Fold this protein.
Amino acid sequence: MAGAAVTEQRAPAAVEQSVAQPPPNSQQNEVTPREVQNGVAQIVNDVTEGAITGQNALKELSTGDFVNYKREGKTNPLTGEQGKIVGIQLDITEKKIRDLEKNPDFNSKENKVFFCDARIAIIQQRLAKLNKPKLSAVEQEEKEKLNKKVIEITDQRKEFVEETGKENVPNYIEGLAKKLLGNDAKDADLKSAQDDPLDFINKKLENAHDPGLIQNTVLELIPEGDERDNVKTVLDALKKEKDKNKRTPLLKALGALAALLFLIYKGSSKELSGGQQNGQ
Amino acid sequence: MQPKTQQDDFRKLIEIEVLKTIKKLAEEGNITKEKIQAIAKNTLDLIQEGMTLEELYRNAVKLDDNFPELSPVVFTIMKEYEEKYEKKALTQVSDLIKTGHYDEAQDMVKKVLAFKVFN
């Protein structure tokens, strides 16, 4: 790797600016998209080759003169121009970046759909806190910003779904809530489950009179594995234990497990409402 | 105390993701020089050396607050964070359950949930 062999210190951007020649096609302060593309490509390629750090690249981009960026000994693929020597701090290697990109999950469209869902859910949590009669100017601004963001992410999500042709809208808590509440679950109940999943599950479990129902409900939603074994162990103990004091820690454990499963499976493709399991 | 390399690796991942997105936007001709400068500056302000994993994560999800172009970066970062770091906490919860430490398990889950809700 040519860039990796160079170990000189990178000169500060200001120094480079003083010696850099303006691009041949620049007119006063006008910068063409081509020049922007070229400057960015040079800098990012140097990062890819391990010649400069990502942080230094960002520092370079934050200056007004990054379009003139050059690196010594390296030919600009677009202009054929030879760059000047600049300092180099070996930090992130090309191999490291390639290793990252080998990760099959990296940047996949399916993951983007999942993260759209996750982000919308998180924003809605924040919006719920702003759902009060009187809002300060700051809160009002925050609320508008969040609502706008939900619309933006929803649009992005739609695009990702269209691109992949895959729907990915699991919602563990809503599925569990519907199971525990029945098909006539009210929106308010579902909302309370969304707002504070752990509290919701704990209350439901405390009030549930039929441990068998809980067992069937919870186990139905969990594929084979450690978590399922954990839940089963706790549920078995709960069924046998009649002493209220001794049931409390078991219920807490169940609540913890349910919340744990919420975190684990909220991104899976399981169809919760129908109890089908086709987890990825 | 988290090992320094973990934080550094995460910080570098964030920086690289931002750079990749800037490069892509520049290739498409969809971004001005000034916008690139602003994005780079905003990233440097939010993502700094010496931050803990949590600080990096909390700041990273703000990257697209003013720059919706960076939304894909935020998705990737969230995914990386959850896969690499948050799942460790979940494994610990599982271990606590197995050893009968139910209260501790619940406390840990509460912390994870609180962290997610906060962000």
Chain A has three domains: 3-97, 109-164, 172-265.
